[in-house]
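[job 4471] stage=fold_predict status=RUNNING
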Amino acid sequence: MKHIGVMGVWAFLTMRVFANVDEALDRWGDTLTFNTTTPPFSLKASGTLDLEGYELSQPSFDPIFTEGHALFVPRLSLFLDAQLGPRVYVFAQMRLDRGFDPSDESSDVRIDEYALRAAITKDSHIVVQVGKFSTVLGNWVKRHASWDNPFITPPLAYGHLTGIWDIAAPFSTDTLLRWSHVQNGSAPNAGEADKYFRLPIVWGPAYGSGAALFVQTGPFDLAAEIKNTALSARPDNWSPEQTGWEHPSFTGRIGFQPNPMWNLGLSASSGAYLAPTALPSLHPGYGLAAYREIVLAHDISFAWHHWQLWAEVLATRFTIPGVADPKVLSWYLETKYKFAPQFSGAIRFGQQLYGRITDSTGRQVRWGRNTWSLDIAPTYRLAAHLQLKAQYSLQHEDDAPATWGHVFATQITLRF
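[job 4471] inference complete, writing structure tokens
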């Protein structure tokens, strides 16, 4: 617990002196902003510094990549926003951290987002966007940033790894069951050996590369995107330099907001989930385009006084020609309550439920372990630019060698 203890002491000392620093950070923010009137142009730089500590059981939670029981993850995120006239907007995000997901790897610098957005109509009701950016699916991605997210870890659908690999296609249902580690007698750390091969339903915000169209009319809004990778693609494949455009994915969302309290959405996505290195393992007569991840999703958000509520359901099918079409259903419900202007608490419950496939003996078996997760997270705004968050998560996997797992995490975020 030493990382968490050090972070707690640091937060206590900081909250005593940070009130005097707020004004200095505001002035610093002004120096990072540049504006002109002829031509109309504005440029703003900003960022966040996150210090995260984890104490966890093993096998480790997805998507936390470590074989130890303690992990410290610092992360520096830098943002650049530029507005050229009333219709053109450019944004970018660069990160310095130990990998996109929490891990014990060495530090690395990465550009996660860069995009240009242009309004086609004067009222900005039709907008196009090109570049590398987060997916339009669902409602979690819109609030996944550390300052806005009530939790430290993502919901199951956005990080819990399945038995689907991207470097190879299974040549039988028994292979898929072995990759999913559902056989009797699996070693407790069996999932760690191939953790870097397996895919979730959606990998975090899915910063794939491509183009998007946004249309708003009355209470309805439409978002559609074409990208170089499927929603499940790992971060290493988000850039077009790593994954070409031979097999694009398509994702869309229709939203309906009848009033300021409610927002409802329906999403759909289809994309090839295998990497080009999987070509030698494909079923005879099929190409990468036949191995598709198909997602149908529904999301709801609600806000009333001090309450906020979010929920999503994602029904997913991975097509594997000549083998099976395994299905998985993932859902979560999370609620946030604001006890005071600076203090709030959130609770989230979610499940990931696997369908059945036929094994080599003719039995109908689940191709993954049904999992549920309970997350509790209080957040305290120490100052206008400083936030302290904690989270306890309890996870249960049916018939697993290690049925129960837990993680305690803390996160300090400095926004500038």
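[job 4471] summary: Helices lie at 2-17, 19-31, 173-180, 190-193.
[job 4471] exit 0
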